[in-house]
What we know:
Belongs to the transglutaminase superfamily. Transglutaminase family. The chain is mainly beta.
Amino acid sequence: MSMYEQQVCAISCLLPTRATRSVGDKMGLAVGLGPSLMTLIDPREETDGGGENEVVSVKEVDLCLAENGPPHHTEKYELMEREKDPRLVVRRGQQFVMRITLSRGYNPEKDAVSFIFTVVDAEKPNYGQGSLVAVPLLANGAESGGAWNAVLENSTENIITVHVTPAADSIIGQWNIEIDTKLKNDGAFSYSHKDPIYILYNPWCRLDQVYMEGDNLLAEYVLADTGLIWRGSYNRLRPCVWKYAQFEKDILDCALYLMTKVGKVGLSGRADPIKTTRAMSAAVNSPDDNGAVQGNWSDDFGSHTPPTKWIGSMKILQQTVTTYSSAHDTQNSLTVDYFVNEEGETMEELNNDSIWNFHVWNEVWMDRPDLLPGDYGGWQAIDATPQELSEDMFRCGPASVAAVKQGEVLRPYDNAFVFSEVNADKVFWRYAGPTQPLKLLRKDVLGIGQLISTKAVGEFKREDVTDSYKYPEKRATMLRALKQSESHFSRYYLNDDFNDINFNFELRDDIVIGQPFSVVVVMKNRSRTENYTVKVILRVDAVLYTGTVKDAVKRDDVERVVKAGAVEEIRMEVTYDEYYRRLVDQCAFNIACLATIQGNNYEYFAQDDFRVRKPDIKIKIEGEPVQGQEFSAVATLKNPLPIPLKKGQFLIEGPGITSQLKIKVPQNVAPNTEATVTFKMTPKFSGRSTIVAKFVAKELEDVDGFLNFMVEPKNEVNGTGNSTAA
């Protein structure tokens, strides 16, 4: 499967992540949950209370899930709200509540209580690596989060309420809890919970390395379960909704599995978001470590699911940043080199570097104490789909975005790779044979790293974050980076530019698939005295979004005299019949022009990306959505093609839908007619929600749509019989 959209929702389960930046941990409302009660396994016979001279023992423990969830922003996790065998999920550096039922009343003068916390998968838990923590119960004390502590909140009869605070640098993952009770200077009992608790990073805690300030930012990057990924090309941006699904069944456990078993993060390393995210960027892909998904950047997916059919991370775990015209520089030259022959054809056998129409990666938010001195904290880029090894593994980052902007390509981790993705220059070379020298046709210093995009905070709109990666005038930064590079290509690249006759592509109109489109090349003769004869090869090729050329769609050879001071236009019309059989995954085309000026042998090469637009699915809700109540919605798609759509199918995800809906369209959809399906869902939570739909047919796929809406709180019936809003 291709992975252009899948940086791990796993990461979003663990720390703040920006999911669309062409682009985390997400959470919101209290749910009515019964207490999680743990029964004492006592090696001695139980007594009916006993006196104060008997050793006090633990009979039950209430983990107070409904009380702990909202302040920890974890109440939406399926682990917390499921009816059978729920588990406590909390965040480090912040207190959580436990209510403990004892065999008798607690006497702080005689009784001693201690809590023993151990990491579940630690073979030999120990204090040195932080996988074993012993905390005495204190009558009072600080709860700052700087260190583990347990404080007695109150004692009523034989029930004590305890506030436990994990340290702000605790290991994340599952922890076992034991409670030791004893008479001071006398015998002791030990109680073990049958189920572990989960401890996560805490962006709400100032002492945590992932601390993020601003409720609106936390709501977007930690709590939201839906984001936008920007696809297409720089001149045809296309937003697609992505369901992170970080709260859904098994997702948190899967994220932890990727960290511990696939990423092989050591115990102490799990406390460090730098080490965790670096390991996660390797654990998602599978070339060298049996990761979550197999990368496939072709158009042949065999029996596997094409990425264009994905709606979210329920099964594959992902979240994301998009840049348009993203570079993959395999030479470490900080340039991307393209080779073309005398026909204007891209020579794939020579092109090791590549320019993707778009590329998606993750950003994660954290401080970077390892890069001191310097202010390199904040957003860090990680990429689970790198095309090369980093320290002998396919992984990338975390790379400080602030360092990338400054051209600090030697900073860890993989800053040079990320710098090239967004800053490299395109260099076009003319190849005339193995014994002939390469001819430098053209340099494009602006074409790579355009429109770096993420979902806007609190809105389903695009936010442009290009300025956080690069300066408007990048030459000084580029020269700084080049001086740090040891590539021979880099030193040669610093030679002079070529400048001559002006050519310009004009891709006219916003073309919907099914319609023809025009490619126009405008040539301007800037000389006031000389006429020029120009031989032009104009070609359109179908390409994958990775920039790999597939089939030729159309080619025109034109010779034109451009008189002094004049402007000439060459137009090539491309019909649906000419392009539809050659379309590949995302309807993208590479349009290229090779022009030769007769008499001086000057050659000019230029290329651009173009894609035809897919239609949108329209979604409409019937009635007013209310928490806990079923409602209906309708999805509609109009066929834009001049041929019928056969065996169509809608894929639906939305609130309360535990597994993806697949609804078949019962009949063929004729040209210019609509396919309509109705479906139902029952939202579990109130607040903002999203329905996402895709349509797939043999003749038309990768069509999607979404609808944002509010779910009203359910009504409660009070003691007088009146209904009130919850």
